[in-house]
Amino acid sequence: MAAAGAAATHLEVARGKRAALFFAAVAIVLGLPLWWKTTETYRASLPYSQISGLNALQLRLMVPVTVVFTRESVPLDDQEKLPFTVVHEREIPLKYKMKIKCRFQKAYRRALDHEEEALSSGSVQEAEAMLDEPQEQAEGSLTVYVISEHSSLLPQFCPPFGSMMESSPIPEEKQVQLSWEYRLPLFFDPQEPLTSLTPVSVGYEITFSLLNPDPKSHDVYWDIEGAVRRYVQPFLNALGAAGNFSVDSQILYYAMLGVNPRFDSASSSYYLDMHSLPHVINPVESRLGSSAASLYPVLNFLLYVPELAHSPLYIQDKDGAPVATNAFHSPRWGGIMVYNVDSKTYNASVLPVRVEVDMVRVMEVFLAQLRLLFGIAQPQLPPKCLLSGPTSEGLMTWELDRLLWARSVENLATATTTLTSLAQLLGKISNIVIKDDVASEVYKAVAAVQKSAEELASGHLASAFVASQEAVTSSELAFFDPSLLHLLYFPDDQKFAIYIPLFLPMAVPILLSLVKIFLETRKSWRKPEKTD
Amino acid sequence: MAVTDSLSRAATVLATVLLLSFGSVAASHIEDQAEQFFRSGHTNNWAVLVCTSRFWFNYRHVANTLSVYRSVKRLGIPDSHIVLMLADDMACNPRNPKPATVFSHKNMELNVYGDDVEVDYRSYEVTVENFLRVLTGRIPPSTPRSKRLLSDDRSNILIYMTGHGGNGFLKFQDSEEITNIELADAFEQMWQKRRCYHFSFSYNELLFIIDTCQGASMYERFYSPNIMALASSQVGEDSLSHQPDPAIGVHLMDRYTFYVLEFLEEINPASQTNMNDLFQVCPKSLCVSTPGHRTDLFQRDPKNVLITDFFGSVRKVEITTETIKLQQDSEIMESSYKEDQMDEKLMEPLKYAEQLPVAQIIHQKPKLKDWHPPGGFILGLWALIIMVFFKTYGIKHMKFIF
Predict the structure, then answer these.
(1) Other C-beta atoms within 10 Å of A72: how many?
(2) 3-state secondary structure of B316
(3) What pLDDT does residue B126 have?
(4) Which residues of chain A make contact with B25, given a CB cutoff of 8 A?
(5) Would you state the torsion angle of the CA atoms of residues A96, A97, A101, A107, taken in this order, to the nearest 10 degrees?
(6) Which of B51, B213, B282, B287 is catalytic?
(7) How are beta strands B44-51 and A353-356 bridged, if at all?
(8) How close, in Å, is residue A265 to chain B by CA atoms?
(9) Which of A496, B69, B101, B132 has its CA 20 to 30 A from that of A26?
(10) Are A208 and A289 in contact, with CB atoms under 8 Å apart?
């Protein structure tokens, strides 16, 4: 009886042990991984290896160059050698001790008939006009015309549409190569530190403001719409590859500059010296409404007509001499020009006096400031090279090329660092959620960077710039997506506080029973040893 | 965990090395390092001023923030570069005996509210999430420019926070908290974005000032470089308020900010006072608590750092010396002028009433609201009542209902 009872309890105990073991097994094998999987932060897969590969991307720029020889410039026996192609690689040092490999693919050829005609014409303008029409120059390419030294188109100069003229008696390979060495750095010499230039963006907002602090004395009229249509829009169209531009204008009355000008008795005029200029902008800026305009970077151009009590007003440079343009600009913000009313208009003593603003003078200054704000400055000319002036649009194609090159490289650098930062951040802070659309933006950005680098290496500047802008936009969208803040901070002690009340009541009996089973089995192993 | 850590560290080192060797126009460490030791390489200044407390008796926190706002504006930072977050409106509070004013000094000497205060985040918009979004730049695209911190890697940012705090946290709106780790992570995210140089929500140098109880705990966990931090009290100490005003009925300012403001009133945009003087402001005898500061993450020596590097604003200006030549087109100008004159005569001024569909607005029918089932509270109450009834009298009484 007792044995049967003991056997029954033994069975019970065994069953109990098996049940406890089974519970523990389910909890550990099934439950723990399930809990881990369902509580981890969602991270869509990202191409980490490709992102780190982007850092090692070697940028190569290719410039397709065509060298055209006219009949007189080349002796006959050398003409046999044409046409041929030479590839010339060079490392161009940029600022900050960085270098970019630049590859000049030079195709030498003889001049075509219409080109011969053009180059034998009497004046430079005619030659330019005739050469410009038939050829559609791709952005980023360069054409060099070699003319004989007896040609009437000398002295040498560099015409505006991405072509150069040079004369050499014998077009030896060496001579032409020598001239490359100092000519092409024209394109890759950023003179301004890039941080003071207008930031790269998809679009820009340009605001022209007329400040009239004294409407009682001056009734100012400016034909801004006409001026924009006539002068600014062509310039912006020429610069169109660099971004979308939108222009607006406003007139502000009773807007004072924050600084009181001083009186100079020698010239009986008022002046603002250089040190007070930085304080001029801040009081005016709040009234410009630039924050309401758009989300794009805003460039403000202010035309200030000084009040009657402070007329005429000049801006002095650090030597105390009045500035010819009477204007100054601030990088990344815009420019201010002071427009003095001609004293002859005060003869009729009826106030307010009607003032018609000479928009040509004003726009010359504003467009020059716009060029400076974008970093299009006069390059250092190599010797024996003359630069012809800008066209009616105010922008030469090679200046635009230079801007696009610099911006493409900058965009690629920015996109790469954004993606790398994102990858590093994800490694450091483990609680950031990456949703699927963010991951797709990252993939797009990586693809765009690679495409842009390829396009640069094959010399297609326009598509490279567009691809680089896409890369920057996608990488910024991915990095600054609002959803990345979702589960940002989930500290460990709070995690314990949440899970302990759930798991501890369940875990304690399981653990205790496991411990008990283990101790009993150990005892039962030892027992046979002892009896033996 | 350790493996991933070391792997990620190795990857970081590798990435950094590769980045430096990459032919890009990245930061100019080599050339400007010498300069950076003596001058801050910043080109613009931003300020984020946060008051986190609501309710009338926390008047002093709003007054603190507005006083710092005034000083910062006086020293040159424009409104477009200041993000001001006030959790409650004291000037137009119904309990304010002097409406439209916020005073920072007893006897109503100084009204810091003024005419041109621009509050960017007000009232319930001041939340931990919005604050972190402003710092890291992860803002929804519809946010206006004035609510964004559009700093770049050459910006010096001043962050001032005040309110009620404790060991390791700062209380927002009496309902949530921001911890020091979250703040440190946010700054790290800003630092990570530094290597790009356009609107990238990063910073060149950051000055963090906090005026709360146990304020020093908030800067303990910072780990990003180029941060200098000041706090009004150490861990375990309370920051005290300065003086009550019997006319208004509340304390007007906190001690630490009061003495900081006295110090700032003597600074003008051209002064050469440095950070070491700011550290001496409000010793224990005046402040009762011990102000603390942290400079180990900052690269430059505090005695070389000017107050105006953070509180003032530098605006680089260049004289325009060149112009371009434009061809005058006088004919087109004259004809367009005539056109404009004619246009002006023909245009009738639009009347306001005709632009708005007033009739439609006034005679709108009220919208039918959707029917919602009764709320949980009512249901619960009834369930309780019924349960009690049946418990007391037994289930057989149900037949009296049906």
Answers:
(1) 16
(2) coil
(3) 93
(4) 94-96, 98, 190, 194, 409-410, 413
(5) 80
(6) B213
(7) unpaired
(8) 23
(9) A496
(10) no
**Ranges of H-type helices in B305-395:** 308-311, 330-346, 352-355, 358-362, 376-393
Average confidence score pLDDT of chain A: 76
Distances (CA, A) of B256 to B210, B260, B264: 10, 6, 12
Phi, psi of B47 (to 5 degrees): -140, 135
Q: In this prediction, does ipTM exceed 0.90? A: no
**Distances from the Cα of B143 to the Cα of A200, A288, B134, angstroms:** 21, 19, 10
Please confirm, yes or no, whether B213 is among the known catalytic residues.
yes
Tens-place pLDDT, residues B378-398: 888 888 888 888 888 777 666
CA-to-CA dists, residue B35 to A168, B153, B195, B300, angstroms: 47, 16, 18, 11
Assess contact for A433 and A483: CB atoms under 8 A: yes
3-class SS at B78?
A: coil
Query: Which of B15, B138, B313 has the CB atom closest to A482's CB atom?
Result: B138
Question: What is the β-pairing status of strands A99-110 and A60-69?
Answer: parallel
Q: Strand A262-264: give its sheet, edge to edge.
A: A262-264, A269-272, A313-315
Chain B's closest residue to A293, CA to CA, is: B145
| Closest Cα in chain A to B180 | A489
Contacts of A485 in chain B (CB under 8 A): 129, 132-133, 136, 138
d(CA B329, CA B337): 13
For residue A65, CA distances in Å to A7, A62, A192, A500 come to 100, 9, 27, 72
Interface test with B, best of A98, A239, A388, A476 (most B CBs within 10 A): A98
Give one DSSP letter per residue of A476-523, joined into a string.
HHHHT-GGGGTT----HHHHHHHHHHHHHHHHHHHHHHHHHHHHHHHH
The model's confidence at residue A48, banded by pLDDT at 50, 70 and 90, is confident
Question: Is-catalytic flag, B196?
Answer: no
Q: Which amino acid, A236?
A: L
Please tell me the pTM assigned to this model. Answer: 0.73
pLDDT tens column, A412-459: 888 888 888 888 888 877 777 888 888 999 999 999 999 988 888 887
Inter-chain touch B336–A297, beta carbons under 8 Å: no
Cα–Cα distance for residue pair A316/A323, rounded to 1 Å:
6
Query: Chains A, B: CB contacts under 8 A, how many?
Result: 234
Select from B140, B185, B320 the Cβ nearest to the Cβ of A365: B320
> Which one, of B34, B123, B103, B47, lies nearest residue B79 by Cα?
B47
